[in-house]
Specification:
elongated, three-stranded antiparallel sheet, homodimer, 40% helix, 14% strand
């Protein structure tokens, strides 16, 4: 007979104590497979508890499969045997690539000015949406995302970008990773995608991850080279005509039409227009997008609010040409949207209420101010013949060309030791040595006003050999 | 000389009017490639505007690449020529699969009770988080997701599921689609994954989409068949031991250890434990997860808040065994999280503040009530010999076995005509005919109390031939 030491005044209910004792005896091999357990009545008597208590314990053991009841025969232990394995201890850590950033003044990454996020407006909108308790908030959305937001984006595109589309053509995604992988899957994974060289490392890595083949296309002063595009045999070209990172190039209209014409020459050719920071232009009005110039449904347009609102807002979108809408349904129709509905509705109201436009205008001024300050310090700390600022009309960074013999890697390392993160254009080239040009990227959007002077001073001290 | 009709009192700035006229002439072929434009001074005189105005117009045209300036020679039109293509009109529509649902009383889908979403608590938390303006809110998160939420989940798992893990092992994803694809990529796309037959159609489709090979494994009354698993040559098994959809089976401890032992037999074998609705159990305490029984780092545990809080909250998570943490970093290290940071922080506080536990307790009662009501109506509208309720301990649906000769498809269609959506267990089998069993799924969580009677009445009327 099973005899256990029951604690009748303990916190754990008595039936759970009995359950645990028997369970441990079974897993420990004290009660073996097939062994008959005492009847409820006799165990209750033996442990001096009620029959109901034993019944509850047996019930739990049965529901978990430790014991089974055979009709008119009683309760029997089941086979529960785990091969013992030694667990080896493995050191686990967090990926470092983001955490470390906070310690540095970062001139190398196109980040967003954190302090200017419209907290109170955002909060007001969220509150309003939650108080309305719309059923929308509780409904799984189809893979394309929330209709209210998609309509808001369609209106915005019509008004501000002269892109005239129906909301049915718009798909919401959580960040560009998501969108690149989706567009790759809509177009078909067997097609070769041409990407920019130099370019964002991430694009290539996302295509790698999705097993989508790509080829790097050389850029000249007007953007992606059509000649090289032809040579590559690419079927699709993925590029940023309005503001290329890191070169800063804006592709002029002539090159845009050339690329569109390349596309029209053959069925199945498409363009992915990555318009990620076209909202901010200081000197001129935004250029016509390829999507709106295109007359033949060959352009997928992409943009994100991570850049224009906050990197914490994980909402991007793509606009499909009409011809691809049905294809997208076939590929993704069974999925639901992975983007927070509340955030989608908040973003929709942020656009519809005019807050987005105001935010863009405000941030343009803020960024313009940051740019002017850093240019001023560069002029102050560098002799006029020692540098050149290469700056195009659009976007939020410029290139500082340094007249120096110091290798890029040395400047970079010394700056990092002094708490300033830098990157050179040369790092974004694949298979090409551009180090001798000493083109330093200056992305000023994320740095705080009070850090600007320090950053430029450090750079100039390295440049003029103060740390030798 | 270019002569245009300028509207000096119009809304559009004069320089933009000039810009548009010249642009249209270039794209329309009136000004041809290489043609020289009038000097700024002479055009200004001709149009009776200031030189500055023409300069602004030319500046915009240059920045977009319509014209170029050659030093000391003047301005020339660039090559801008687009092959004309006829745009064919294509009808585009929205995917129907979700929109339609609202018209029906839906007994076929495991949806969530919308009316019980804790709007005011959620709103309070969002407000608090936004008012604190934490920098966290504005920072791009690494691919694993927000640390505060991951710590909250680790605490929750320890307290409520006896799963003892470090937050470094936890990855946040937006919905299960996301997580299935991630786990597939961590384990390697060349491994064969065994999935349940019957099972959720979506799992197979997501693996299809990700080009991950899978094989369907037969289930018996205890869950996935180890014999069939062996036969399949699968390397990985993806299953739901705590509550299988649609069968409702809870895998007993003996079978769990058998599957773990299968896993230990060979290097590289893994288990994906899909625990999607284990939070709700009416009759017994939750069973020990495979993850916590495992002694050899072979189980990936997955769960989602879409089920326990709201389908609009797009947050799921997976817990990696220690051995896979580094591998995940290698695969995903370059990506950032695609899940809304605000929503992650809100969910974290929802857990940490004890709201999640309270919500689960409340919803268990709500769902229990819904279950009892529908069972009551079934007993009222069906004669006692005509049906059997097959119900296991866990989860949020049961199977209603009908004694009938009417084919499942006929019952389904007639019910749909009367506004009730049904599904039979037979629909979830692949390559197996189970129609003769007439096992009807009853998922009662999403239907409103006042709809219950109508739904059961419709079903009974079909059953007893009232619509003949």
């Amino acid at each position: 007979m099973l005899t256990y030491n029951i604690d009748k005044n303990g916190k754990t209910p008595i039936y759970m104590q009995i359950y645990s004792f028997i369970k441990n005896d079974i897993t420990g091999g004290i009660i073996t497979y097939g062994e008959k357990l005492p009847s409820k009545r006799s165990l209750a008597k033996n442990l001096n508890v009620s029959v109901i208590t034993v019944e509850n314990a047996y019930g739990q053991l049965m529901s978990e499969g430790y014991i089974e009841s055979k009709s008119k025969k009683g309760y029997f232990a089941c086979k529960v045997e785990l091969i013992t394995k030694q667990k080896t201890h493995i050191e686990i850590t967090e990926p470092k690539y983001i955490q470390d950033d906070k310690k540095y003044i970062n001139l190398s990454r196109n980040s967003v000015s954190a302090e200017d996020f419209p907290f109170s407006t955002w909060s007001k909108i969220v509150r309003k949406i939650l108080s309305e308790k719309d059923e929308e908030l509780l409904t799984r959305q189809n893979y394309k995302g929330n209709t209210v937001l998609r309509k808001a984006i369609a209106d915005y595109l019509r008004q501000f970008k002269a892109i005239d589309v129906s909301y049915e053509q718009i798909i919401i995604g959580g960040g560009t990773e998501n969108l690149y992988s989706m567009s790759g899957n809509i177009l078909g994974k067997n097609l070769l995608i041409g990407i920019e060289n130099p370019g964002y490392h991430k694009i290539a890595r996302i295509y790698d991850y999705n097993h989508i083949p790509y080829s790097r296309i050389e850029m000249d002063s007007k953007g992606i080279s059509v000649e090289d595009l032809r040579k590559s045999k690419a079927d699709i070209v993925h590029f940023s005509p309005s503001h290329h990172f890191p070169s800063g190039i804006t592709t002029p209209i002539g090159r845009r039409t050339e690329i569109l014409n390349w596309c029209y020459e053959k069925e199945g050719r498409y363009i992915i227009e990555d318009d990620y920071d076209s909202e901010f232009r200081f000197n001129a009005k935004p250029m016509q997008s390829l999507f709106s110039i295109d007359k033949s449904s060959r352009v997928i347009y992409m943009n994100t609010f991570s850049k224009s609102v906050s990197p914490a807002v994980r909402i991007g979108y793509m606009v499909l040409p009409e011809t691809l809408v049905k294809k997208a349904d076939e590929v993704f129709g069974f999925m639901s949207s992975s983007v927070s509905v509340l955030e989608q509705l908040t973003m929709a109201e942020f656009i519809n209420g005019g807050y987005f436009e105001r935010h863009i205008n405000k941030m343009s001024k803020v960024y313009r101010g940051k740019r002017d300050i850093i240019v001023e310090y560069i002029k102050k700390y560098f002799h006029s013949g020692d540098f050149k600022i290469l700056e195009k009309n659009a976007g939020l960074h410029f290139v500082l060309k340094l007249k120096t013999e110091i290798p890029d890697s040395v400047i970079k390392q010394k700056a990092e030791e002094k708490g300033v993160k830098l990157s050179f254009l040369s790092e974004y080239y694949y298979g090409k040595d551009e180090e001798s040009l000493h083109n330093l990227l200056i992305t000023y959007t994320g740095i705080k006003q009070e850090e600007t002077q320090k950053a430029v001073k450090v750079l100039s001290d390295i440049f003029y050999g103060k740390y030798e």
